[in-house]
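Dear H.,

Thanks for agreeing to be a second pair of eyes. The structure we're designing against is below in token form, covering all 212 positions.
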């Protein structure tokens, strides 16, 4: 009798399963937005949530989170302000990034050039409160809150060679809080884009492909 098409089976009739190879993200596929927030907060559409968990696997091809010199580390200092000055949900939730000198946030990415857009500050910041952020060890944002502006977006471009993009607050600026970050591959004139992969919370990688 001809066996209908389906899963391969051994002679005993037990289904044979072959593990999938790990997915590897291509540089051209990178366009990811991360929202820093408490676990109980609503994740804005189009973002992946970071709730302060240690660096690790976060699902479809993504690995990110918090580290200290000793290894992956939990960052429990998350906030939700519910304040009109936040202007959006992405600006209303925050995480403290400067409470330890060796604390940093990292995401695994292929080598290449990236545009990094950081939203930092605090809707409840007092005038004169300073927020300082480094990307790959270089100054990316230095902002002092005023009565009329308490959050700011700053964009930089960086060349990534070691496979991990690192964001940190310099030692001594303990008030620095991050609201969100968006990381986009910078294409040359021959670059292009294609499909996308969605996360459960609406976040997505956009661009060329995910290679298995």
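And this is the sequence the design step returned. I haven't edited it by hand at all.
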């Amino acid at each position: 009798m001809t066996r209908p098409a389906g899963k391969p089976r051994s002679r005993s009739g037990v289904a044979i399963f072959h593990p999938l190879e790990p997915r590897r993200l291509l540089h051209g596929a990178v366009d990811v937005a991360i929202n820093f927030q408490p676990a109980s907060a609503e994740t804005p559409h189009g973002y992946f949530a970071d709730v302060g968990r240690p660096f690790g696997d976060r699902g479809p091809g993504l690995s990110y989170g918090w580290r200290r010199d000793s290894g992956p580390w939990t960052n429990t200092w998350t906030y939700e302000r519910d304040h009109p000055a936040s202007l959006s949900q992405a600006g209303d939730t925050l995480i403290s990034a400067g409470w330890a000198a060796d604390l940093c946030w990292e995401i695994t990415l292929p080598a290449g050039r990236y545009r990094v857009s950081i939203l930092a500050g605090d809707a409840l910041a007092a005038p004169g409160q300073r927020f300082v952020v480094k990307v790959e060890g270089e100054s990316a944002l230095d902002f002092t809150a005023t009565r009329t502006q308490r959050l700011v977006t700053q964009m930089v471009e960086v060349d990534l060679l070691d496979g991990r993009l690192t964001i940190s607050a310099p030692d001594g600026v303990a008030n620095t809080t991050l609201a969100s970050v968006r990381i986009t591959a910078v294409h040359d004139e021959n670059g292009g884009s294609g499909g996308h992969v969605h996360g459960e919370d609406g976040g997505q990688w956009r661009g060329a492909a995910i290679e298995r």
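Two observations from my side: Residues 89-92 form the longest helix (4 residues). The mean pLDDT is 79.

Warmly,
E.
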